[in-house]
Specification:
132 residues; mainly beta; Lipocalin; 14% helix
Length: 132
């Protein structure tokens, strides 16, 4: 095989390997950081959050957000939401009917966002980092 062809093939293999490691949708993966309350007093508590974000296995275009909090060093499940991801805006939006809307913005290995109640009140602020 000529040298140029061999280099081309090697380059293609490296590209395929890199694309296999990077998530197709930037929000996919595991994330850990803070979820802080903005309304006090309230039942809300500041938390160390651990999120697992995946594509739905059954519904095309739906993102599944599993939210846990860390209590005494252990993960405690808070719930699972179905969400949508806007690639142009790098934004994950999760609607909780009659409870509020999560809006999370992805920038590289960081994700920040908010939970707003139906009346528009800012209830939580999230700042998480992608886990390896």
């Amino acid at each position: 095989m000529p040298r140029a062809a061999a280099l081309f093939v090697c380059g293609m293999i490296l590209q395929l390997a890199a694309s296999a490691q990077a998530p197709k949708i930037p929000v996919l993966g595991t994330w850990k950081g803070s979820s802080l309350c903005t309304v006090r007093p309230s039942p809300c508590r500041d938390e160390v959050a651990f999120y697992t974000i995946t594509e739905s296995a059954t519904t095309k275009g739906v993102i599944v957000w599993k939210a846990d909090k860390i209590v005494d060093g252990q993960r405690v499940e808070m719930g699972v939401l179905e969400c949508s991801y806007s690639a142009p805006e790098h934004t994950l939006t999760c609607n909780m009917p009659n409870k509020g809307v999560w809006e999370l913005h992805v920038s590289g290995n960081r994700m920040t966002g908010t939970l707003k109640l139906p009346d528009g009140t800012l209830y939580r602020k999230v700042n998480v980092k992608r886990e390896p």
